[in-house]
């Protein structure tokens, strides 16, 4: 939701993407540490997915600086609406684990690399895409899916952030101020996810996804 706000405030697209990546890294790091300390996150099984997310993010970040994003921006709102309907009504979006549909290897390659590329290329809704994929394809409950999403988002955004920094696209004063707010908000948010589980995550995901879809449709 931050990226559309930056664009609406008049920040040029590449600067908005770069600044958003910078501030997002610190919020995601804060929530990742909290999930890990509370025992809701095991990083070892995620290592292959993190590698694929890194590769995908690097390719996506380099691509966004060269390609037109118009087609993706037109498709994205409808993808988000379909995803919101799935989150709202799928029995897999709960506090209970379910049977995996994809193997770890397949998930790591296609979801880790694919969403990593999307995160580097554009990014809105990336965390929601990862969380839904963990629940729908690996059978994770929503609390576990949310926790496992954080390291993947962190690697994706950090990779993208570094490349944007090298290219000189970050607006530093804005990025640092937003990063401080992100650290505080992410810590509080992750604590709520741990304590409330699907009762909190499911409706919040639906609302955020729909708001983002509506925002993108209005812009289009």
Number of domains: 1
Low-confidence stretches: none
Largest sheet: none
Number of DSSP helical runs: 9
Distance between the termini: 16 Å
Shape designation = globular
**What percent of residues adopt helix (DSSP H or I)?**
over 70%
The beta-strand count equals 0
What integer value in Å does the Rg equal?
A: 16 Å
- What is the averaged pLDDT score? 88
Strand content: under 5%
The H/E string reads HHHHHHHHH
Class based on secondary structure composition and strand pairing: mainly alpha
Question: Can you give me a brief rundown of this structure?
Answer:
This protein has 9 helices and no strands. The protein is mainly alpha-helical and 220 residues long. The model has no long low-confidence stretch (mean pLDDT 88).
Question: Can you tell me about this structure?
Answer:
The chain is mainly alpha-helical. It has one domain. The chain is 79% helix and 0% strand. It has 9 helices and no strands. The chain has helices spanning 2-8, 13-37, 47-64, 70-89, 104-121, 126-138, 142-167, 172-196, 198-219. The chain starts with a helix and ends with a helix. The model has no long low-confidence stretch (mean pLDDT 88).
List keywords for this structure.
220 residues, mainly alpha, 9 helices
Topology:
Elements: H1 2-8, H2 13-37, H3 47-64, H4 70-89, H5 104-121, H6 126-138, H7 142-167, H8 172-196, H9 198-219
Helix pairs in contact: 1-2, 2-7, 2-8, 3-5, 3-7, 4-9, 5-6, 5-7, 6-7
């Amino acid at each position: 939701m931050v990226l559309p706000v930056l664009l609406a405030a008049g920040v040029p697209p590449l600067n908005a993407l770069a600044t958003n990546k910078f501030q997002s890294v610190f919020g995601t790091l804060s929530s990742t540490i909290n999930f890990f300390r509370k025992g809701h996150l095991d990083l070892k099984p995620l290592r292959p997915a993190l590698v694929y997310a890194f590769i995908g993010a690097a390719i996506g970040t380099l691509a966004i600086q060269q390609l037109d994003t118009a087609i993706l921006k037109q498709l994205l709102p409808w993808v988000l609406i379909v995803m919101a309907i799935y989150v709202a009504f799928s029995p897999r979006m709960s506090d209970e684990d379910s049977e995996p549909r994809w193997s770890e290897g397949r998930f790591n390659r296609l979801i880790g690399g694919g969403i990593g590329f999307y995160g580097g290329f554009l990014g809105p809704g990336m965390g929601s895409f990862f969380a839904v994929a963990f629940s729908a394809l690996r059978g994770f409950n929503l609390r576990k899916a949310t926790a496992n999403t954080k390291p993947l988002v962190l690697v994706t955004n950090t990779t993208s952030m570094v490349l944007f920094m090298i290219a000189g696209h970050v607006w530093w004063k804005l990025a640092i101020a937003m990063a401080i707010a992100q650290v505080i908000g992410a810590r509080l948010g992750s604590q709520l996810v741990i304590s409330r589980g699907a009762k909190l995550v499911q409706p919040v995901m639906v609302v955020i996804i729909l708001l983002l879809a509506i925002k993108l449709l209005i812009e289009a």
